[in-house]
Specification:
Shape: globular
Number of helices: 15
Oligomer: single chain
Number of domains: 2
Helix content: 25-40%
Distance between the termini: 38 Å
CATH class of the largest domain: Alpha Beta
Length: 369
């Protein structure tokens, strides 16, 4: 599974840079222009001062288009990949930045309209890096002069090429390999084992739960399941994830074999904290898709290539997919896994998740009938 064309150095720097953003440390993006960036939601007074000291122009706020329309209080051009807004000194402070970044915040600064600014060339790379860190895609950015690398290094800051950040998602699963496996008898499916995978590029770990011996079946039942802390572990009624997880294992045990791929893609790929923010927006009237978009994320940020790679490693090339999601059917087929049939996997609404299920059917095309 190793992709020899994917440099091991680029992902190393990218993940260090994403980690620094999470810790409130500025990062330098290099390319045709040099752009020093700082995640708005983790910015502290010291980092803001550091940014000011290295800046050669007025700072701007970089946000995703939907959020940009809110902070500018005007429409944003269709097809825009990002929006830049001038940040006056009076608003270059921690409280204001977090207010502009987070639509669930209620700070007064979040209701202050900003003026538009020219979009830096590296804006999309900046938002991509924030997303890789599972942060709100909202950053303070300042152009810095050519030859600033030495000064940046003297501050202990990381420099990463903007082009490498933009190219990274295509190699996110590079080096995916099996790490460990062990029998894990489950209630209702005692003949089960768990196989752990790790991608070298991202170090993210995914699990395959094997019921029986699916490797020997002609086309075993397969379920692609993205982790859901609230639904799988806590039994949340806001979604149907816990029922789908336990229902899939029960169906596989009844069928005699199956594989549940448990992917580390919480909240359709936006992470647990952002999912909780999305819940807050849903409680204010948005549906699950629009809540993600208002936060600056896509409706679905998951990558199903990892599921196909795990199946290939397990020796499974033909499957009956246990899903209601047409995107999963298309993704596996596009990755070379033959889907010989679809098994419906719908559960009745519980009085809390009714609108959530309606949205999945009406706006995401899920087959829930």
């Amino acid at each position: 599974m190793n992709d020899a064309s994917f440099s091991p150095l680029a992902p190393r720097l990218i993940h260090r840079a994403a980690s620094d953003l999470r810790r409130g440390v500025p990062v330098l993006l290099t390319g045709d222009e040099n752009l020093l960036i700082l995640a708005a939601e983790t910015a502290g007074p010291g980092a803001v001062a550091e940014l000011r000291a290295l800046a050669t122009a007025q700072p701007v706020l970089l946000v995703a288009p939907v959020r940009g329309a809110a902070v500018l209080r005007r429409s944003v051009e269709n097809g825009a990949v990002a929006v830049a807004a001038l940040l006056p000194d009076a608003l270059l402070n921690v409280e204001a930045l977090r207010g502009f970044a987070d639509p669930t915040a209620r700070q007064a600064a979040a209701r202050t309209a900003l003026e538009p600014a020219p979009l830096p060339q590296a804006a999309l790379a900046a938002l991509t890096l924030a997303k890789l860190g599972r942060l709100l895609p909202a950053l303070v950015a300042v152009p810095v002069a050519p030859g600033i690398e030495a000064a940046v290094a003297s501050h202990g800051l990381i420099a990463v090429a903007a082009r490498d950040v933009l190219d990274y998602p295509a190699g996110e699963t590079a080096g995916l390999r099996r790490i460990a496996s062990a029998p894990v008898p489950l209630n209702g499916a005692p003949d089960s084992r768990v196989v752990a995978f790790r991608a070298e590029a991202s170090a993210i770990e995914h699990l395959a739960i094997l019921v029986g011996s699916p490797e020997t079946a002609e086309a075993p039942l397969v379920r692609i399941h993205s982790e859901c802390f609230t639904g799988d572990l806590l039994g949340s009624m806001r979604c149907d994830c816990g029922e789908q997880l336990r229902g899939a294992i029960a169906k596989m045990a009844e069928d005699g074999a199956g594989v549940l791929l448990y992917l580390a893609q919480e909240g359709r790929g936006i992470g647990l904290i952002n999912k909780l923010r999305a819940y807050t927006l849903q409680d204010r009237g948005l549906d699950t898709l629009d809540a993600n978009r208002v936060l600056g994320w896509g409706a679905d940020e998951r990558n199903f290539l990892v599921a196909a790679l795990m199946l290939v490693d397990l020796g499974i090339k033909r499957v009956r997919l246990l899903t209601n999601n047409p995107d999963k059917l298309a993704a596996l087929a596009a990755c070379g896994v033959e889907v010989v049939g679809r098994e419906a996997h719908a559960f009745a609404p519980n009085g809390v998740n009714d609108e959530y299920l309606n949205t999945k059917a009406a706006r995401m095309g899920h087959m829930l009938d």
